[in-house]
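Example record

The entry below shows one chain as it appears in the dataset: sequence first, then structure tokens.
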Amino acid sequence: MSETEGRFERGRWIPHPPPAPEEAEPAPAAPTVEERMHEASESVRKAVNDVMNAGHHLLGTPEGHEHIEQAARKAGEDLERAINAWAESARQALRR
């Protein structure tokens, strides 16, 4: 005989009803294009700053630091321009 939770009522075993399923939390809203672009830009800026900081710690000469900073800034600017161009084309496609 299986054991189930319940109670006796008028000489009969009345099982408790199964617990109601818990309500699931609503799924978070999908990020907008603007939010994703902001996150991507922040990520690029952080990556560029991380590269520059690594250059300051890894290379010992001021000329080496300057070279790395300039290259990292240029790479970051190029990447940001590419992301912004892609975002603009995506916005225009969504408007159509």
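Notes for this example: The longest helix spans residues 62-95. The two ends are 67 Å apart (CA to CA).
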